[in-house]
């Protein structure tokens, strides 16, 4: 069950976010909701991870459903498709995943506060609070632009790497925050990529205590 009013963007549509569970992984600093901070759960994906033909097929099926059932079924299909590893899955390669992780960490505490993340084979989850003088869209654009240029050079390729759209969801309280971090950390386990959250190297959970209670240890 998701919080009332929780939504995310997907190619101009608004759909319900993925289910989440109670958290075990959390950095020492929590967002200050009373001061107006609003952390966001962001998901962005590789351009070939959800083919248009597949999305059109879903639309025909999902449109037959009514109300909330339509959103739930669409969410399930998106989640299952991403976790099934459609596309080239460039992020499965450690040197490529490392580029994305470095992009996320680069401006942490300067342009935003990074609470948690996971780099999956064809998509990325991030929990982040932008600084007041930074828009969420500009933060995401910088991640995607920097990482795309670097990754394309490593792969000796040209063209679009990331899908243009992204999913976003506001996190409204501490309980929701912890559940979201747990969902993000548990993604590799749910997708069958590892046995334990801590075994996936490209996530906040994989960094252990060095990330959970402060800045990553250099």
Describe the SSE topology.
Blueprint: E1 8-10, E2 13-15, E3 40-45, H1 52-62, H2 67-83, H3 94-106, E4 112-119, E5 123-130, H4 136-155, E6 167-170, H5 174-190, H6 209-212
Antiparallel strand pairs: 1-2, 3-5, 3-6, 4-5
How would you sum up this structure in a few lines?
By secondary structure, this protein is an alpha+beta fold.
Main attributes of the structure:
globular, alpha+beta, 15% strand, 218 residues, Alpha-Beta Plaits
Structure in words:
- By secondary structure, this protein is an alpha+beta fold.
- It has one domain (about 10-20, about 40-205): Alpha-Beta Plaits, CATH 3.30.70.1290.
- Helices cover about 40% and strands about 15% of the residues.
- Helix 3 (about 95-105) runs antiparallel to helix 4.
- It is globular and about 45 Å long.
């Amino acid at each position: 069950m998701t919080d009332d009013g929780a939504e995310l963007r997907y190619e101009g549509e608004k759909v319900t976010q993925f289910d989440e569970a109670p958290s075990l992984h959390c950095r020492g600093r929590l967002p200050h909701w009373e001061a107006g901070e609003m952390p966001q759960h962001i998901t962005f994906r590789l351009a070939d991870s959800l083919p248009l033909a597949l999305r059109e097929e879903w639309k025909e099926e999902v449109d037959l459903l009514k109300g909330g059932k339509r959103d739930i079924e669409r969410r399930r299909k998106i989640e299952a498709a991403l976790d099934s590893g459609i596309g080239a899955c460039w992020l499965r390669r450690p040197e490529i995943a490392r580029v994305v992780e470095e992009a996320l960490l680069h401006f942490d505490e300067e342009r935003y506060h990074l609470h948690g993340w996971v780099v999956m084979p064809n998509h990325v989850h991030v929990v982040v609070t932008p600084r007041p003088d930074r828009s969420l869209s500009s933060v995401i654009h910088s991640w995607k632009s920097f990482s795309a240029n670097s990754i394309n050079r490593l792969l000796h390729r040209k063209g679009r790497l990331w899908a243009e759209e992204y999913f976003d969801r506001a996190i409204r309280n501490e309980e929701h925050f912890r559940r979201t971090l747990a969902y993000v950390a548990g993604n590799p386990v749910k997708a069958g990529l590892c046995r334990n959250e801590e075994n996936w190297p490209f996530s906040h959970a994989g960094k252990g205590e060095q990330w959970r209670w402060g800045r990553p240890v250099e």
